[in-house]
Hints:
The structure holds two protein chains of two kinds. Chain A is an alpha+beta fold. Chain A is built from eight helices and ten strands. Chain A has one domain (24-74, 93-277): 2-Layer Sandwich (Alpha-Beta Plaits), CATH 3.30.70.20. Chain B has one domain (63-394). Chain B is 74% helix and 0% strand. In chain B, helix 4 (97-117) packs antiparallel against helix 5. At the A-B interface, helix 1, strand 2, helix 5 and strand 6 of A face helix 5 of B.
Amino acid sequence: MALKRMLENWSRLRQHDYYADEPYMWGMSIDLNKCTGCGACVTACYAENNLPVVGKEHCGSGHSMHWMRIERFWTEPEDNPDVDIEEATDHPERGAHYLPMMCQQCNHAPCEPVCPVAATYHTPDALNAQVYNRCVGSRYCGNNCPFKVRYFNFFDFWNELPHPLEMQLNPDVTVRSKGIMEKCTFCVQRIRSAKDAAEDAGHHDHVEDGTLLTACQQSCPTQAIVFGNLKDEDSKVKRGWESHQVELEHFEQDKSEDVRGYRVFEELNVEPCVMYLDRVRDTEA
Amino acid sequence: MKDIEWAKINKDVLASLESPRPLFWVVIAVCFTLVLAGVAAEAYQYNYGLGTALMNRPHYWQLYISNFVFWIGMSHSGTLLSAILLLTKADWRKPIYRFAEAMTLFSILTAAIFPVIHLGRVWDMYWVLPYPNERTIWPNFRSPLLWDAAAITTYATSSALFLYVGMIPDLAICRDNAKGWRKKLYTAMSLGWMGRATEWVAFRKTYVLLACFLVPLAVSVHSIVASDFAMSMVPDWHITSFPPYFVAGALYSGCAAIITLFVMLRYLFRFEAYMTTEIMDKTVKLTFAIAMVWNFLNLGEYAAIWYSNDMFEKEVLIQKFIGPYAPVVWGMLLCATVAPFAMAFEKFRHNMWAMFWLSLVLQLGMWLERFQIVSPPLASNHMPWTWAVVWPGTIQMTLTVASFGWFTMLFLIFCKIFPSVSMYEVKEMVFHRRIASSRDEMEDISKIKDEVMQTEVGLK
């Protein structure tokens, strides 16, 4: 019985565009022109998704659990490319680039085929789901992720939470124990409740664009983050993708100078669902 | 070697079960202490979490995985020596193949520990196995880690079987000479072997059949271990030539281990008459050939990465040679590429203790090789923002050292309980050499006869 069901599932999954008829495909667009690197999205993510604050020591040894992080890159001064940016104290602040990085919800996710127990898989609404209960902690997915956005619970961080603070945990989200992998879920708890609410209001298979916000999007002061349904032709994110000529299954999207849309590591063909808009700057000022 | 009496072979080998040199007990005690230290380290890590091992993001894998590859690799040359050389009828394998097979079994048992202690939730490790359950949840058959689980269990079972089957005639000899608990053990294990002709025929067939099964299995097992890396998309892991490269590396480190154990057993159990310099010479020549194959594949890999012009892979390769892990890479090249050339000299090959130390150097080189496969690509991965250098901490190092203690302890206990030199095969070898030499003598006599005849003809 079990074997039969497994073979059936496999033959279905081998079809191309198996999820093509699904009404949802969650996607995101992040405008780096608008991003100021303030870190509000990171803080919001910590509060929404019960992320442990690990403290200075663990942070230093690479055990921090920020599902969303602000990566900071510096432009090398053009006249002197050999200057060590870490050392240069007089380097102008304006040279910094900020890149909010979270799970890109890849459509060809490299983390999915390598998990021995199938704890990570693709949902019909194009989310890259992580099943905490099933994870045994082999950490292969973390190695295979080119964005390195998977976070492993190296310790039981929640054991040290002082008494009344457990009251502020989000009841909709699991508190994870040691030995399992976790990552950005696109606030799946909000997606599920928004879908349920739409269903209750009589909108079958349709969540109104703008009614569903992720925690990072909600808290972004410059509204750099746009989240929505890529299958919905009228959604803001879909229109953003179209106007910047970014589409799935096209990874050589190098176009004219004035088109800013790109996806990180497009050349690896992992098909991320997050589009970034390149930052435009006046280099001569 | 042809002068050894058959009764003396029995006597010498059976004596090894009773009275090893005193150093034997010292080695056992040291190894047991190391194992205890390892158990303590694992208990600590189990209770506090894997972070105590100092792994982090992006270094999700480190010494546990490189040790796993090292020990699995070591198991391969046992199969090579016993199965491949059996099929190619190289008779010099006979005095040393038994301990090589035991080495195979115990290094698999050592290797099997590492993927387990490496898991975040050790207590759920059985989920990796495809066992039937009421929720119809299956493991992910696309994952190389699952292939690993299947490959290791198959290899451990078959090499244990091969070791046992090859030992049955010797166990019967032990049974006939033993007393007390040993008598009971050997009686049960020798399965009523009487040495009849029909038994020998059946035994030979089974043994060759098992050997034929083991050879492709061994190659596939290490190819699967290589797939753990080659199937991923981490730069410098994602390399097509990894399976043959891993198999060659496995045979290389394994042959070095055979040389180490060869010298150790020869001394501890007084096997000087059987483990001769001639056999050492042949083993070393084989090791040298394999070392050259490994070096070729290693350089081929560098060339393939360099000329591929893949930005990420090239960066990792450059970082290997000049980056923070450069001492490891250069150490590997020194120990595993430069050092083996000493084996080209006959004087060196015939010096037992020189070979003992050289084999340890080769193994160190191959251990470093496994470390530089796992760590540097993670340190300089696709995403520059996460680049970080991490060296293994106390817990990882303790468990590594403990694994050597665990292996040596199991191995020496085996040699104390079971005959580590195959008695019946050595007798065969002595028999064949005697026939060969008597044939030579016959030829000598006929030559003299001819000469005498010619002289007589000349006198006339």
